[in-house]
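Sequence in, structure out. Go.
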Amino acid sequence: MHKGKIGILGRRELIIGLGAMAIPLTSAERLSSRERAATPRQTEGPFYPKDWSGDADWDLVRIKGRAVEAMGQVTYITGHISDTSGKSLSNTRVEIWQCDNNGRYLHPGDNRSQERDFLFQGRGRMLTDRDGNYRFRTIKPISYPGRTPHIHFAVTPPSGRSLITQMYVRGEPQNDRDRLLNSIRDRTVRDRLMVRLEPADRIEPGALTGQFNIVLLA
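Output:
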């Protein structure tokens, strides 16, 4: 069943709440060697969005002009983009895309039989701020046949090489059976793609939040 309007939280309150979730600034000197390790690459998959026109902002749950929101559990994904030297990357384009709560992508090539949730934006993009931070309001990713829950990421800095990767949910039982995820043999490296989702009721009742920091090769 589709959710109603944001409710007791208006757009202004949501922005203020997200400000409270701001990621602390981290200098290059304070970054550990593990935190400077490059985020592993993953395949783009067959459903990279073909159409970025219309509403494709940071909030994937609510399409502009629609009073009703998408199905699924609201989830805030925040993070910091840096390179392996520890430099924060400002003005870097971050794109995400994922299936809706029915397991369908917003893509003409996804012709599976499940009905698509037309209230889910399906993809979003934004630029990191001057400190290299980004944020998205989306839904908790779900599994579909052959894949554990995940969110696709494409990160493109103003200069240098872009990165395609995927974010996974820590503790999901299907992680151990996902071939793409487990193609990364080193568990320590694989762990860099895992994000723990925790309650975010102080931001929005019933919501979750997780932090996915991404490191690009310098």
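Check: The two ends are 45 Å apart (CA to CA). Residues 11-20 form the longest helix (10 residues).
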